[in-house]
Design goal:
Radius of gyration: 22 Å
Number of strands: 18
Strand content: 5-15%
Number of helices: 12
CATH topology of the largest domain: Alkaline Phosphatase, subunit A
Shape: globular
CATH class of the largest domain: Alpha Beta
Strand order of the largest sheet: 7-6-5-4-8-1-9-12-2-13
Amino acid sequence: MKNRLTWMLLLACMVPLSQASAASLKGKRPNIILVMTDDQGLGDLSCMGNKDLQTPNIDQLYKLSTRFTDFHVSPTCAPTRSAIMSGRHEFRNGVTHTIKERERMALSTTTFPKLLHKSGYATGIFGKWHLGDEDAYQPYNRGFSEVFIHGAGGIGQAYPGSCADFPPNRNKDTRYFDIAALHNDTIVKTEGFCTDVFFQAALGWIRKQQQAEKPFFAYISTNAPHGPMIAPEKYKTPFQQQGWDEKTQGRYGMIKNIDDNMGLLMKKLDQWKLWDNTLVIFMTDNGQAGRGARKNGKANRIFSAGFKTGKGSPFEGGTHVPAFWRWKGVLGEGVDVPALTAHIDLFQTFCQLAGVSIPGNIQEIDGRSLLPLLENPKTPWPDRELFVHVGRWEKGADPNQSQYKNCAVRSQRWRMVNNQLLYDITADPYEKNDVAAQHPQVVQRLRKAYDSWWTKTVPLMVNEKAPYAAEHPQDVRYEKQLKERGIPKWQRPKL
């Protein structure tokens, strides 16, 4: 008995004092704020080494956070969003593209917001949804009690089929300002820059939930810094003065604006005394986009944190993104977690935090709970394979013809790309040296795992033969409301 007690005390001492014990996070029911930006990479943060772009507020969050340093998402936006919502690879939800009716998350998918909402959480989304514009696919039918979103995959975008934003947002030069947004069941006219609007809407709603003493999940999913690169002039000017081209001025300006809004969020959580029971997560939806640039008239690629590729790539730069988690007094500050983790892990993690049992009759979950790592970053973490595919083959094409195109398998140590290239990520994180010839057994093992996964996944690609919708549902919705009751101005909440 004495030896057992001694051993237990030793184990306790191994866990940082700033972190919770192993069982204590389950069912704690914290508020959860997930901030996910669009097309921003690790290289777009000064805490990751960018000398041209300063992000002091996100840097401060980084300093105070537990950081997953090997965290992965999908190579493009709608796939990542589907994987987060469902806890499994996007192809298994029918999401194999960002347009062409293949961005719609299968209606058979149960989202974690739906489970959280059933357990008493208020659930809100602010910004980008991009998992279907038809009514059945909208977030208010997928578990969100508060909805404040634009349409399509980007503000002002419109494509054949159902994927299209509201008509007023399609002005080429001004579409990120004064946007039309869907607020629950009503389209409203906003004032100001889109990212400011989304954060303001989220903060106003968060304040209401606090006053009602209701736990909440807030999903702040910005359109920025997705192209076109448009930012308020005050955010562009410093980069103009540095000599950057117009596009880069806009892009960096959008990121500076995001950083200011992150600062506002953190300030309000301080002011409202919410940090002690609120988990804040900052991440991005895929690797860095828009990497080509000019400075003082000369070609000058923007800082990429060492990665050779970005968005839309099966290489490391396409999927490796920041993931900063802060829960004051509960999670460690300035702690790095090197375990291989991914977006598919959020589903189980959030459900366990909320004390929600995952029903046995919903979709198969691919992810794991991150609670063991949050409780002790040094806990053993079994190796795993993460499967990557850019998708985007032509509509109507046989997916099997693209099985080995733009794909990857990632384990803790290895990344196999396009069924042939092999990189030792532990020794070569930026994928400079193909070592497939030196490790044929590893290649064989990863190929076998990928083939097995593909065979099981193809039957679940339910949108491949979906016909184009005859009309854009958001167009129809807008014109109907305009005729029947007009488009009211959105009332900015007082914070």
